[in-house]
Every structure is written in C-alpha cells, then in structure tokens.
Queue: 2 jobs
Job 1
Amino acid sequence: MNLERKTAIVTGASRGIGRAIALELAKKGADVLLNYNGSVDRAREVKAEIERLGKNAQLYQCDVADYSACETMFRDIFAEHSGLDILVNNAGITRDGLLMRMSEEAFDSVIDTNLKGTFHCMRFAARQMMKQRSGRIINLSSIVGVAGNAGQTNYAASKAGVIGLTKAAAKELASRKITVNAVAPGFIETDMTARLPEKIREQTLLQIPAGSFGKAEDVAHAVVFLASEEAGYITGQVLHVDGGMAM
C-alpha cells in the first residue's frame, strides 16, 4: 500500500483518530494536509511528526460545518497543490443527551459538523478529482450510525447520514474512477471515550466479541487500505472496525 507522490487531506487531524490517520498516511508515503478547527498547538505537533517522517505537511484551519470556509480552504489547497488524491472526512463532534432533553442547538451542531461538514468537503474535493479522473474519498461513520445508541440520537443520525451520503456519492463518482467508502469504528480509545464513566466502559466491553477496545491505529490502517491502489475496485462500502461489536 504505497502512497508515494500522493496528496491527502484529513479533516479533524489534530487529535485522536484523525491524528492516527494522518500519521499512517505519511508513513505510507503521502504528503498530508492537516485540517483543524480549534486545536492549533496539537495540529502543529502532528505536522512536526509528519515532517520527521520525511514527508510534507501543511495546516489548514477551517470549521467544516461552514460551507464558505470549506470553499475557501479547498480553493487555497488547489492554488498550492497540483491535485488532491485522498480525502478523509474525519472531523466530528458529540453533544450527547436523552431525546426528550436534547436541545435543537445540540442536534443541529452535530448534524452540521458530522454530516454537512462531510458533504461540504466531498463537494469541493470531488470537482478536482473529477478533473483528474481519479481519487479516494473515505468518510468516518460509526457503529452508532449502524446500530444506534441511547443518548446519542443526534450523533447516530449524523453517522447514519454519512453512510447514505457515501453510497450515493459512490454511485455518482464511480465512472470518474473515484471511490467513496466509509469506515465505521466501534469503541476506540480516544480522549472522547476516555471521559466515559467506568461503568459504561465495563458494560460496553461485554458487547465486544474481541474482548478489548480498539486503538486509533486500527482505524487508520483501514483508512489507508481504502486509500490505496489495492482498494481500487471497492466503492460504496462500509468497513466496520469494531472487534465484532456490530455483528
């Protein structure tokens, strides 16, 4: 899975799964454009790590929920780079709460970032990829988008929407040699999941046939595969990285 001479952008790349994906793409030879929203110090750390691997990295600050900001970001990218080979839509947020207590703002903010943000980036990246007649788009969904989860109606809706968006776009773009796939992580050890109460963590572990939580690198390996030439005949699929949790 050699990604030499490829250019990739990873949204939400300053921490957690996004960071792991960016580093793994660089390890396989890609130059990586790092999108972040608020965590500039962490983004700079990821950039430095990629440069230590001998690959190029650039930072692009942008709230993917903002259509105009995304348009500007991709305009800048295409002014500075001859093409874009890989788009990884990883940026996401949670605003958990029970259905009867969830505010409209909490629902809208998650949909705007997780679902609309994915749409925004796909829309602007796809135009360049269509001109090239090549490209890989990988969207981050979630086991919650497949199976649902109490207290996360907004997040479940956003991640289920990402799957529908992925499949529809895959059909539209396949004739231009652009693949569009999704990765659906299960319970992955990140800063986000580390904040969960221990009781919830114990209950979740009992639902995982593999008997352990995943690592961000497990998700990164799946993304790199879907970004590679070896996955050129795979499109419109959802690859579960969940230790069997969704079975």
Job 2
Amino acid sequence: MKTTWLSGRGRWGAASAAVLAALFFGLSGTASAGINDTRHNLGSGTGIAGRNQVTDTAEVCVFCHTPHGGSTTAPVPLWNKRLGANGTPAGGGAYTTYASLQTPSLDGAVAAVGGISLACLSCHDGTQAMDNIINSPGSGGLAADGGGPNGQAFTWNVGGTVNTAGALSSGAALIGTDLSNDHPIGIQYCGGGMDNTGAITGCRDQDFNPATTATINGNQVFWIDTGAPGTKQRTDLPLYVRPGETTATGPLVECGSCHDPHVSTGQAGPTGTGRVAGETFLRVSNANSAVCTACHVK
C-alpha cells in the first residue's frame, strides 16, 4: 500500500504547506490546517502549550518530511530522518517485541519492526534526537545521516520531555525499545476470512472483524471500516503491505493503523460527522472503545 506524506524543506511558507497537504492527503482546506495544533509541532512558532519545541526554526513539517533529498530506504516517501534497518532502532540497540511474550492469542505471523512503524519509532523509541533531520531548514543543511544520534544540535525548550541531546527521555510519548507492553505491530491481520482475498493464506481469525480491500491506483489496499462500509476514508484504520516482506505477508497492523500523526484535537472527519481524538492522534474517537472494537470482536 502506498502511504503519502507531507514534507518540508527550507523556509517555505504556511501557504505552501497547506497546498502540499491538500495535494498529498486529499483533505479539505479546513482539515489540512490541523498539524500546528498538535504535539507534533516541534517548531518555535505558536502552538499548544507544554509541547517539546526548538528555538532554531518555526517550521513544522521538516521534523519528519522533505520534498527533496529524503531517505531513499525509508518505507515512508519523503522521509527526513535516519532509520535503522528493519528490527533495529535508529540510535542502535534492539527492540523487544510483543511476540516475545509468546501469547497464544498472537496467531498471525509477525515481521521485524519495520515499515511505517519504524518511521514513527525514529522519534518515539528515544534512541536518537528528534532534530535528526537529513535536510535541515535553509540552504546547505543536507546531511545523509541527519546528524547521527544527536541530530542537528538544535536548542530545545526547558521543561519538555527531551534530554539535552533532543531525544525523548520521559512521558507517555516515549515508547522506548521494549515494545512488549505495547500493541503488537508488524503482525498479519487475520480478521474474518482474510485469506479469501488471496493476499495471505492460512490466516483466519473469527475474533477479528474482516477487513475491506480494494484496488486503488493499481495497488491492492486494505483497511478496517469505521464509517461508510466499503468507502475508504481518512478515519478508517489502514492496514499496510510491505513490498518484498517474506516473514509476514499481506496486510499488517502498524502504528499508523490506529494513529494519524496529522490530526488535531476535535478535527472533523471527512463527512463532517464523527470526530477524531487528536490529543492521542487516534483516527477516530475511542469513546466506547470504538478503536478497539473496530478490529476486535469483543
């Protein structure tokens, strides 16, 4: 499945950012303006109180994306941060995964930590600075390794949840490298009769709702409906395919299945009805455990 991302390079303005957001995400003008009002706004400009922020740049998108010179190996297009190899944190070490618990309920094949989840963890595992940026703001700031574990040595606000090097060091956003107490990622989705799609075989679990699949732009894509059945919307829960993956094939559950890094608190869904819970970047509100029961039959 192709995942499209917004990016930023140099000191391009808010108007350019809004245009790119509309092009990449297909969002309305109202919905595309939300990123400034989230904790993913790490720039020095205005935003919500208490967030981590630098004094070096007011740019927002640049901490994750760039329109030029991004990573050529990242699973996310236009990615502006250094990543480790599959299964390896960017700053070194190793991940301990949910599969290490050997729970019998984990009946789908599990891939190494990778894909879109590895991109999320390039900040949230705390092994490298959040200002690790391959293409820094301004001219002449291109660095293939993003500055290494200590990033670009930006100055971070006092009282945030980062250490002096700019890496997450405390708070709920710090997932760390021990993922055994977090929802499994990189796991085959076996809901209903998914093997009937031809995408995977021998993977069928009636404790999960079936996924929806369709061919979009020549690619078979998968998602869990949260709104109009059979119509792919931003508030649906996407499942991800890793090209060339041999350990776990077919649609996989990743960080981005439940979380949308670009939604702001209370942002309206694509139909104007229903809300997403932006404080925790959930794709839909988890009132009545709606996120959980979208997949789990409980």
